[in-house]
Design a protein that fits this description.
This protein has 239 residues and is an alpha/beta fold. The protein is built from 8 helices and 8 strands. Helix 4 links the parallel strand 5 and strand 6. Helix 4 runs parallel beside helix 5. The protein binds zinc ion (2 copies). The site of one zinc ion (ZN) has 5 residues, from loops.
Length: 239
């Protein structure tokens, strides 16, 4: 399988990541990737990119070292009503936006609360991807979240870092497998994201691929195989 895009990468502006955008793009080119999304953390997380970082993207090229750059964000879901930490002025101008739950921004709620927060974020017109679903610390109603994906066109991310043995989101494989099985049943596409916080992690989907292989997940439901297909599948590009 030829995976040509990585839709989840961080740079030094996130302050707990260690590479520049230039280093990320150079490495992506070396690895044979055609596209990466710049998805630094939104300003609701302390000590990360300020609002201005996302507002100023127009100064960046769209192609760097031969790699297409999607100007994006990993937006924080701030409460159980699905409040986001970037406003529509900015979100509407991005090429891609992931929304994720992080303990620094939202405490682990009840199953109902977490599920409501995820669904609200997925319903947002400029949220294209639900980032790292499956974190067992955020108990969720898998079937309800899956239905929301079908209804809203928001895409599930299969996050490689969630499956790293030394990672923060241990035990994510259970919910991820359940989501993948529902996607398989109903022909719903997913996106793989490395969640790289250092350039050598870009395009590394090793753990996710093991999970996909374990259930013979069909290649045609993996959007990273075609940057063109991937872009067309983003909710914001369907309007
Ligand atoms: Zn995240
Ligand atoms: Zn991330």
């Amino acid at each position: 399988m030829n995976l040509l895009a990585d839709t989840h990468t961080h740079s030094v502006i996130s302050q707990h990541a260690y590479s520049t955008i230039d280093e990320n793009a150079r490495y992506a080119a070396q690895k044979g990737l055609k596209m990466i999304a710049l998805t630094d953390h939104g300003p609701g997380m302390k000590h990360t990119a300020p609002r201005a970082f996302f507002a100023n993207y127009h100064i960046l090229p769209k192609v760097l070292h031969g790699v297409e750059l999607l100007h994006g964000a990993e937006v924080n879901i701030m409460d159980y009503s699905g409040k986001l930490d970037l406003d529509n002025d900015i979100l509407s101008k991005l090429d891609i936006a992931i929304a994720s739950l992080h303990p620094q921004c939202i405490t682990f709620g009840s199953k109902e609360e977490n599920t409501a927060a995820m669904i609200k974020a997925m319903e947002h017109p400029y949220i294209d991807i639900l980032g790292h679903p499956g974190d067992p610390r955020y108990e969720m109603d898998v079937e309800a979240v899956f239905q929301a994906a079908k209804e809203t066109g928001c895409i599930f991310e299969m996050n490689n870092a969630s499956l790293a043995p030394d990672g923060f989101r241990k035990g994510s494989d259970k919910y991820m497998l359940e989501l993948l099985q529902l996607c398989m049943r109903d022909g719903v596409s997913v996106i793989l994201g490395s969640d790289a916080h250092f350039y050598t992690q870009i395009g590394d989907f090793n753990y996710v691929l093991q999970l996909l292989h374990s259930i013979d997940f069909p290649e045609e439901l993996i959007l990273n195989t075609s940057p063109e297909k991937l872009k067309k599948a983003l909710k914001r590009n369907k309007k």
